[in-house]
Fold this protein.
Amino acid sequence: MVAAPIIATNAGASPDVPAAPKTASCPTTTTFDPSTTTVPCTTTSIYIPPIPTTTSTSTTTTTAPPLDPAKPAVPECRGLNGPAPAGVAPSNTHFEAIRCTFQLNLLVPIYQPANGAFMPGVLVNRLDVAQVLIRLQDLLRERLAGAPVPTTTTTTAPTTTTTVAPPVFNDLPDEMTANEKFQALLEAGIYKGGADGTFDPDGQMTREQFAAIMARLLGVHGVGTPPAAPNPFADVTGWAQGYIAAVSEVGLIQGFGDGTFKPGGFVTSAHVATVVARFLAIPQLQS
């Protein structure tokens, strides 16, 4: 069952865009194979011939089942028996995702232990999410470093790369301006500022901004690009629709039962934990 994302109402937020637009009883009759020596039941059984079937020559294509948002299959979380942070009950829809990402120390930037509890419904700002993504990128690098070494050698032609300087924002705290990992997010184009040249670090993250950032992160790791086809949500138009369609397609961020996405809704700490856990569970990123 896909859980509805947590949102809070937004009253107008600056889009994350560049200068361009924004043991049961046994039955009395049991079917079994008489060629076997084991009788599947202790009561009297009779042999019922199987119904003949025809063999189809058609070829079917099977696809992997969608990610279960309640229990994302994050390799790093397998075998971890630590608790979830205080304040998150096992009945919480996002419990496993929060527990997983908490154990991996990914939630430090949005975990506010002043009152000894993690508050799933607290709104997060743009800089908070950036700091979570820095930790996510570190974990992905560790995963890649631990991947098996290929047994075959491939030769590729040399390529020329052009380094693009990250944008400069005058409203960033000094420690982030000097943070190389944060600057790498900017340089890769994962994070963008507003049309006015500001980053708005304290601005509350909206669902469409978060969708755009996670879609770009998918692209950096080679997991698709925003599709050109229209997105499936009735209330999404404009600059973010390709990004929203991309994250929806892989199950990172989903819409609501009424067919809407609520792009201007604010993102909560539980939402961040869940999306990050889903990201780590994407099959293409498992090695």
In short: The helical segments are 95-103, 126-145, 174-177, 180-187, 207-220, 241-249, 269-280. The two ends are 27 Å apart (CA to CA).
